[in-house]
Amino acid sequence: MVPASTANVIARSDHSISRNHISPNALRVLYRLREGGFQAFLVGGCVRDLLLGLEPKDFDVVTDALPEQVKRLFRNCRLVGRRFRLAHVFFGREIIEVATFRAATAPEQGDEPLPDSDPEDETPEADAASEVEIEDEDAERLLDEHGRILRDNVYGTIDADVWRRDFTANSLYYNIADFSVWDYVGGVEDIKARQLRLIGDPETRYREDPVRMLRAARFEAKLDFEIEPGSREPLERLAPLIDNVPPARLFDETLKLFLTGHGLRSLEVLRRHGILAHLFPTIDAYFVAHPGSLVEKLLRQGLANTDERVRTDKPVTPTFLFAILFYGPIAKAIEATPPERWHDLRTILDACERAVREGQSHVAIPKRFTLGVREMFMLQPRLEHPRGRRALRVLEHPRFRAAYDLLLLRAQFGLASQDVAKWWTQLQEASGDARGKMVDDLAPSGAPSGPRREGGRRGGRSRRRRRTPRPAQ
User: Fold this and answer.
1) Is residue 159 among the annotated active site residues?
2) Is 58 a catalytic residue?
């Protein structure tokens, strides 16, 4: 699809977007830009969501003002980005992102992660990716050998800016001057049809920025849209291009896929289009080798629980997400050792480190999250076998709540004792004196309530070996 040279301007009376549903801070930015003599539009997903009657997660602004001109208008502004220069206007915890109209083929607004990463969180792979991108810093536009845009700060007009947008549904402009919607590419009609359509030749657009394949999967999952056939056909064939994306960008996209309320649906979409194999190869390989396993059911339920927490505005954490994502590879590594070592903390730690290391070959997961995954798994034996007053100290562990949630999930599928999970639930609800009695009443073996049931395991195995996560093949 080639964008029209002129927009279809939809008057305020003919669309449903109201300023009452737009962030007051975004309106402040739009009005100040206009007062400064510049054009100012809301653009992208926020316009799409407003037309769908959804509440946008954030509001992006586009203008003909250069980044330095935007900075002069706002004292609370900071310029960020290398491959795509942006202005961030800060209002407390809310950031309004302001981009300058780009020439055709510039990368999608918001594709670049924030530059303020913790140096201790960086991986060698992320560092190497950064080194590739900063070569030839004087170049205005830089592509790699696969056709992926590494840098593009070539400015243009709104008529050219539409070319760099990815999907027609994300390519609508809301004009603060007269509250109209400008549509160059039939985006309004595609939104009505609940259809995702790439602007331009799909293969070329995916090669320019392979992250667009992940965005296609995310929008399909989030919006329950259907990817139109021409935009869907190249996905599985071009998915290997994701291997060339900097791991730091893939981490950012992973959080958007799995921690914004549609994680379970995202997993299904990624697997269906053959993308998961290039985002998390070891996880995909585990599911291919063990179709319909208890581990797969555990992950699906864990993602469903996370989606529900997002819907009810409860906090979610990447630590728990990566714990359930890597559950299969971790369990596989544990079971590769002799059975008498399955319960050893060293075995569990080695399995976690191996699974995380393999995962980080594609996605740059910060250390604060990978360390949390290790602690969650290393707490499982202590949770499964509480020992007297030591159990009270476990309650004070910083990772107790996440480890306890993992224990509940395992118990739900017979991978841990339901009696033990119930005991920990009751211990948290008990008063101080009642807690003391509960731990004093523990059997010498550490079992809270009599002989332990072998939830879901085949055959009888010693209780001692039941301490580690055990998938059903």
Assistant:
1) no
2) yes
